[in-house]
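does this look right to u?? beta-D-galactopyranose version
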Amino acid sequence: MIWFGGDWNPEQWPASVWATDVELMRRAHVNLVTVGVFSWSRLQPTPETFDFGWLDQVLDLLADNGIGACLATPTASPPPWFTDGLPVTADGVRLTPGSRDTYCVNAPAYRELSERIATELARRYSGHPALRMWHIHNEYGTTCFCDHCALAFRRWLAGRYGDPAELNAAWSTDFWSQRYGSFEQVQPPRTTQYLGNPAHLLDYRRFVSDAMLGHFVAQREIVRPSGRPVTTNFALGGWVPVDHARWAREVDVVAVDDYPASVGDHLAERAFTADLARGWAGGEPWILMEHAPGAVRGPDGVTRALAPGQARAAAGTYLDRGASGVMYFQWRASRGGAEQWHPAIVPHEGPDTPVFREIADVGAALRGRTPERPTASRALLYDEQTMWAWQSPHLPTRDIDYEATGRRWHHALGSPVDVLPVDAPLDSYRLVAAPLLYLMSSATHAALRSYVRGGGTLVLTFACGLTDEHCRVTPGSLDDLLGVRIVRHLPGEGHRWLDDVEPAGAETVRRLDGRPVVTEHRYGQGLVRYLATDLADIAPWLSPSRSA
Ligand code: GAL
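got this back:
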């Protein structure tokens, strides 16, 4: 079976609309709806009072109609009475309620309230016949710099480094007189005079990810006795302070939201998300928890309708790549509020409309379908910590976009391809590509060498392995594997960037203006191909056959 449906926010509508909604869901072959995501102010109108009557009715209605509930804990959007635990920006501005996601996961008051509402929901609904799955929170992503975060960050650092001397070594604090005498002296990377320390910035993102994960796990443990799978929907993109590869090990089922940015390339963008989600899921089921029905909102802020048939093609793209569920945001368009113009399965104009008809057709086509289990012989390594490292303002060029490069390589690799975290097992792949893998721990170095030694073809590019996981420069760290000596890095030369190399065992297979730009090196039983500049046409270099 494939999960099919979307976010339903019945609290925005009078109860008289709910029966119509459920009748329409049946017409559209919906079997799962996410409920309660933004309903905290309804469920707990004051700190001391709860109102579950409306949610009882909603869940009963779903159960009576054979529709499952993916029941959310509402902690992504605290009610207006919540004031003790609001987030603070890097500039020191405390945010005011009025939108959503205004919380600090390290604020004790917020943690306590989150666990309380999760406990009440678990107590009331764990045995409800509509309950299929728990949806903790929504798109974790608020970065905060408050004093609670400072305390928690110091604890996190103490756990990771043990001794301030280790922290000083990892963060290279002798540069600009940043040596710490104790963990108590460390602050979150709040706004400062000039460039921040890249290792400090990177560790703060790791810390924020772990702190939010702690908030998730606390709620997961509360709802888990119900025996239903527990998940949270991953938001994607460079701003998201969540290390999804790590989180994927903590959710019962990986769930991603996907909002491509262009109508023209939306299927390629969706394919990348789907392959990424499958990689995080590591062979287990994964779900597309949200995408917009029938439209794409571009980076210019314009929401454009997809051509007829494209909603079906979108669903097919996820399903072909192994999705166990295809869900939309949202079921019925909101009459008011910040997302009143967001596309919906039931638009303001009602069900007798092109989008409703097409989504209902998608639902009909999914009946009886079971999840695909694609297998690939080629893989792309995609590391979110490296993406974060590439965002640092101190780098010698601003011209590198790790995310866009990942997408371009994914497209060039064709299908099927697995998109994998750096610590995934690689032995079953004939070819592994790892463009722009700037940040490389000794574990990653060892894993890549072992993969090639065992007979794999590895494709690396310029700017790989420039630093360790603490952003400390590691010159020549790949030379033995590449069979070249990299004598200097030339950002802005060649195409975007050129590594100036002297072959030392590798064969030069392509030159640009007389300089080697593609080399191949036999290493153990395998082959390493190295692209020293950002070639426009990468596809010819993504075949494992040359290593034969
Ligand atoms: C998602 C979010 C939804 C809704 C949607 C709009 O990121 O989870 O609540 O805001 O975006 O596209």
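The chain has a mean pLDDT of 97. idk if thats expected tbh
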